Amino acid sequence: MKPHPLILSLGLILPLAACTAGPDYQKPQAQLSSQFKEQPDGWRQANPAGVAQDQWWALFANAELDGLMRQVEVGNQNLAAAEAAYRQALAAVDSADAAFFPTVSASAAASRARSNSSSTLTGRETTSYRNSRSLTLGASWAPDIWGSVRRASEQAGATAQASAAELAAARLSAQTALATAYFQLRSLDSQSKLLAATVAAYQRSLEIARNRRASDLGSSADVAQAQAQYDSARANAIALTSQRAALEHAIAVLVGKPPADFSLPVADLPTQVPAVPAALPASLLERRPDIVAAERRMAAANAKIGVASAAYFPNVTLSASSGFTASALGDLLRASNFVWSVGPQLAENLFDGGARDAAKAQAIAAYDQQVAGYRQTVLTSLQAVEDQLSSLNALQGQIDARDQAVAAATEAERIVLNQYKAGTVGYSEVITAQTAALSARQSALTVRQNRLTATVALLEALGGGWQAAR
Fold it and tell me: pLDDT for 186-227, tens place per residue?
């Protein structure tokens, strides 16, 4: 008994199906230190499972910030765009996996043909008509002998994983942008409160200068200097309102609302700065979404080399069809009109002008590019952590020094103002002392704001609360 052509084809093809063209992916090594150079003394290394918190901003214990973060999740349009890109990547995986399966089609056709013929005896022409009806079911399958489909599926899967990491990166970016803008806005609120108190103090000093001139104890120059100082402070206070408005507008956009429909009440800058759980440099490879995205893009590029390598081998297709064909519709489904066909098809490019060589070289170069990009992303991430650790160390020392400066400047202001009231110094000394006190207080607020925003930046550099799926 002769074997069926389809069975014979499968017997020849299936043993080859274990072949997979191209290199298997191996994750390249990245240069990592055992610990961070700038980590402060006593910075305890935390268990990665304990560090990975979904809501990293909860460390600040700020209910208003918590509410804004929830609005970012549902309203931020950059985040919505990244989520849509991720859904596209998932659909691409389904599209690539569809190539593993055969395609099945059905068709029905009807035609009527006219033909003319002439008799060699009579010379007369006759016209005849022929009807044709057909109903066909067909299937074809291209077995993945060389692994091209497997590599394409691998590429699509890695790309989808990269897109998931990029979605997490977009979320983290929006969250840290919100936290930074929020603390900057609260710093302006505290600056405005400070300037309001300063304007009131300068107004009292102006009244003192006017009273001393009225009593012939002071001069018109003292009054003019006090007036100029008072007006300048008022102008500075007004200028802060536009800066606050700009930050409020930025926060509105981050939470997905029109600026006209959004406002935040005035509140002081938080004074408590949370301790950030420590992490090892190696943990960044799983915690930072941009590193994970770069690594998955690298895996996708490696799979693309396999797709390009498989193009050197012939394409094999198994096809089968069956159906009915007849001239009359009523006779279409008769058993005698049943037809079928089955068989393999082999196709190979004998000459392509070097196109396949160029495609493989391009894929290899693209992979090398992704490897370099991955390693650069790791180095940049390490730099970001070191920078923020160094900044926080310096800012902590600055806070202590700034607080001492505020205390000294406040005392000097009090002494000089009393001396002016007693007539032992001129008003220029008062201006100098008050300007120094205001500058010291403003600098103390700025340092506290910088420490909060540097903490946010450190949390972002550490990957926030995100962790790659294992």
Answer: 999 999 999 999 999 989 999 989 998 898 888 899 899 989
C-alpha closest to that of 197 among 467, 469, 434? 434
CATH superfamily of 5-99+143-314+355-461: Outer membrane efflux proteins (OEP) (1.20.1600.10)
Mean pLDDT of all residues belonging to the chain: 87
Distance CA 240, CA 224 (A): 25
What is the tens place of the pLDDT at every residue in 227-273? Answer: 999 999 999 999 999 999 999 999 999 999 999 999 999 999 998 88
The backbone torsions φ and ψ at residue 108, rounded to the nearest 5 degrees and listed phi first, read: -135, 140
pTM given for the model: 0.84
Please give the average per-residue pLDDT across 289-312, as a whole number.
94
**Would you say 250 and 42 are in contact if contact means Cβ atoms under 8 Å apart?**
no
Short-list 462, 444, 449, CA closest to 387? 462
Closest-CA residue to 452 (of 50, 32, 57, 45)? 57
| Nearest alpha-carbon partner for 69 in 248, 251, 260 | 251
**Sheet (strand 315-326) strand order:** 103-118, 125-141, 315-326, 338-347
Q: What is the pLDDT of residue 44?
A: 46
